[in-house]
């Protein structure tokens, strides 16, 4: 246990879990080499903000500690040694280092108004299954940051890499099925509602990440993540996000992947977190489950390769072709396709029917069958080159 030195503020007794609390009504300042230890709850209704120095510790052998008040307190270095955890009812900021010794930091999960904030982040240490942020933490001013977040006795880091150094990113981890999220989320994130390029979406866990800047995100999995339910080969894993605009899961890519089916990590392509409600791990279709992958056609009027053509289409009495753009919107849909599509749209996602689609990559499903039944489902990618 640490010893705290006297600082100029008021110590009063408050009815918080029948404990005494250190209540700051005035203006506090931590100077160089100062070491201040709170062996009681802390309430900040005064000023304790930027440019503090020294180390501040929060300690308890058995009681739950709390930090509350109307104002956010900002510290230089923080040490947490609270066996039965510490609860934040108002945010606190850290300008330098954080040392987890024992106990988790709990923040409310019903919103992002209260969080553990890393400001011009330097380092933290000691994080683990019993020492992490159970709730929301934020960062600003760091090109790469690993959120030490978890749920209950399980840490599940999330790493961002961004060039947006003036952007605040805030996030939390939920060991909850996205189909049945907590009530403060206003909708269910149905895992069957997904872009055509996505095969499966995790039903075990998700992360909630906010931020207006572009970033990649690295997500981790462990033997409780249930990856065997969504993929056989980890190389087919992708990061997926629930699009606010389209109300479905969108493929956020796979730029790097490490590990095996029981433990590892995956990195997304760049995206803007505020475009998505939540993110998690999903899988794409394996190459062996697709046919006619990467078809290219050039509807430019030169009499060569002007239409999207599938071999052996005449072997089936019935078919249905559906083409999607990168957002999962249907841009072309037709029954009994005749190998005659020239890259125009008849879907709802474009401004006018029969408008030529822009050059680029699209996704398709081709259902085939006989006797009025569509029994074979081919999926793949096509590229329109004009």
Task: Provide a descriptive summary of the structure in words.
With 386 residues, the chain is mostly beta strands. The chain contains no helices and 32 strands. It has strands at 10-16, 19-24, 35-38, 41-44, 55-60, 65-68, 73-75, 77-82, 86-88, 92-94, 97-102, 105-106, 116-119, 123-125, 133-134, 137-140, 144-147, 158-162, 169-174, 198-201, 206-210, 215-221, 237-243, 249-251, 256-259, 264-267, 276-284, 295-297, 318-324, 330-335, 360-370, 373-384. A seven-stranded mixed sheet has the order 1-2-4-6-9-12-15, with no helix packed on it.
Characteristics:
386 residues, mainly beta, 7-stranded mixed β-sheet, 6-stranded mixed β-sheet, elongated, disordered N terminus
Assembly status: single chain
Largest beta-sheet details: 7 strands, mixed
DSSP E strands, number? 32
What's the Cα radius of gyration? 27 Å
* Low-confidence region ranges: 1-18
What percent of the residues sit in helical stretches (DSSP H or I)?
A: under 10%
Q: What distance separates the N and C termini?
A: 72 Å
Instruction: Tell me the number of helical segments per DSSP (H or I, 4 or more residues long).
Output: 0
Strand order of the largest sheet: 1-2-4-6-9-12-15
Q: Globular, elongated, flat, extended or rod-shaped: what is the shape?
A: elongated
Please, what is the average pLDDT? 88
Structural class: mainly beta
Please indicate the percent range of residues in DSSP E strands (runs of 2 or more).
Answer: 35-45%
């Amino acid at each position: 246990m640490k010893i705290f030195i006297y600082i100029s503020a008021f110590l009063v007794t408050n009815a918080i879990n029948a404990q005494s609390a250190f209540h700051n009504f005035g203006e506090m300042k931590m100077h160089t080499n100062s070491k201040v230890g709170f062996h009681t709850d802390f309430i900040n209704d005064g000023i304790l903000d930027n440019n503090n120095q020294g180390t501040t510790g929060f300690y308890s052998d058995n009681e739950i500690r709390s930090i509350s008040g109307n104002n956010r307190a900002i510290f230089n270095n923080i040490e947490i040694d609270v066996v039965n955890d510490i609860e934040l009812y108002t945010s606190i900021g850290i300008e330098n280092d954080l040392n987890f010794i024992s106990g988790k930091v709990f923040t409310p999960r019903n919103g992002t108004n209260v969080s553990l904030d890393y400001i011009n982040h330097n380092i933290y240490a000691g994080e683990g299954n019993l020492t992490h942020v159970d709730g929301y933490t934020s960062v600003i001013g760091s090109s790469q940051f690993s959120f030490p977040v978890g749920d209950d006795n399980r840490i599940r880091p999330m790493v961002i890499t961004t060039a947006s150094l003036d952007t605040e990113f805030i996030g939390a981890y939920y060991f909850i099925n996205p189909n049945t999220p907590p009530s403060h989320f206003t909708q269910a994130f149905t895992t069957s509602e997904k872009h055509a390029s996505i095969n499966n979406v995790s039903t075990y866990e998700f992360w909630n990440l906010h931020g207006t800047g572009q970033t990649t995100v690295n997500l981790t999995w462990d033997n409780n993540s249930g990856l065997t339910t969504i993929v056989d080969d980890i190389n087919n894993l992708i990061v997926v996000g629930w699009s606010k605009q389209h109300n479905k899961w969108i493929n956020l890519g796979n730029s790097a992947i490490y590990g095996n089916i029981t433990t590892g990590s995956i990195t997304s392509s760049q995206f803007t977190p505020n475009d998505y409600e939540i993110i998690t791990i999903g899988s794409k279709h394996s190459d062996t489950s697709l046919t006619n992958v990467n078809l290219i056609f050039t509807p430019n009027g030169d009499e060569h390769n002007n239409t999207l053509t599938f071999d052996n289409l005449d072997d089936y009495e019935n078919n249905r072709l559906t083409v999607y753009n990168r957002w999962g919107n249907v841009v072309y849909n037709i029954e009994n396709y005749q190998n005659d599509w020239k890259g125009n749209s008849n879907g709802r996602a474009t401004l006018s029917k029969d408008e030529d689609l822009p050059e680029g990559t699209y996704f398709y499903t081709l259902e085939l069958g006989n006797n009025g039944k569509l029994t074979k489902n081919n999926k793949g990618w096509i590229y329109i080159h004009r």
